[in-house]
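Most newcomers find our protein records easier to grasp once they have seen one. The structure tokens are whole numbers drawn from a learned vocabulary of backbone shapes. The record below serves as our worked example for the rest of this section.
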Amino acid sequence: MGLILVFSMGWASAQQQGFDSVQIRTIEVTEGLYLLRGSGGNIGVSAGKDGVFLIDDQYAPLTEKIRQAVAEISAEPIRFLLNTHWHGDHTGGNENLGEAGVVIVAHENVRARMSTEQILEFFDARVPPSPAAALPVVTFNDAVTFYFNDEEIHVVHFPRAHTDGDSVIHFRRANVIHTGDLFTYEQYPFIDVASGGSIDGMIAGAKRLLSLVDADTRLIPGHGPLGDRSRLKEFHDMLVTIRGRIVLGAEAGQSVDEIVQYEPAREFDAKWGVNFISSERFVRLVHSSLY
């Protein structure tokens, strides 16, 4: 279950769908760092002597399962929760964790969006304001660094990409990066234009990420399996190719319907169009970001 279910069915109804059957899978990325996969955005976990540093928290009904998965990794408490952006499949557990005393951190635009009703035009949905306990209590503008579990955790804002509040989390000593939804694998990304996202920002973000990684870097994407530099490069090149074809069609005077008929994402569909967003919807989304 992902964003498409939450935003197309409505926030409240989506929260009641099928969570009993969700299993939280734990994948060790490197010593002390883990990926939790369940339903929604990928969760990053740093566990060590200072406690647990959590990145994103999926949906509220999964909080207890996520706590159990974390407890199997570490007996230490969850001290910090970092939200990569405001979407509910990454922040749905905020209220539960905030009420338990976890310090929630995010870019200042995340708190701003969670504090007010949001309109998600692409899904024709309204998202109500989050409860006070779910809101980040520490915000930052450009970057913030945590010195935690013998790690230098550098959190950087990437502007106007997936949303206007995206953060990338770089575990510098471990050479691991949690990208949030700036990078997804084997599915076209959702670009939340209504929340300040853009295809140009996504491409710029992927290019910037490429400058930070080497052949040994492990990438925790917002959705999908663990990645590396080659997968990130594949993602970047896919976005560049599709954007270029859409621009060529628009500059030739074609309408968005005509561009869709040309199938600018044709060779990518088998891999990227089988989950979440179809190629037609992705092309329309990119077009709306540009024009």
Notes: The domain at 3-230 is CATH 3.60.15.10 (Metallo-beta-lactamase; Chain A).
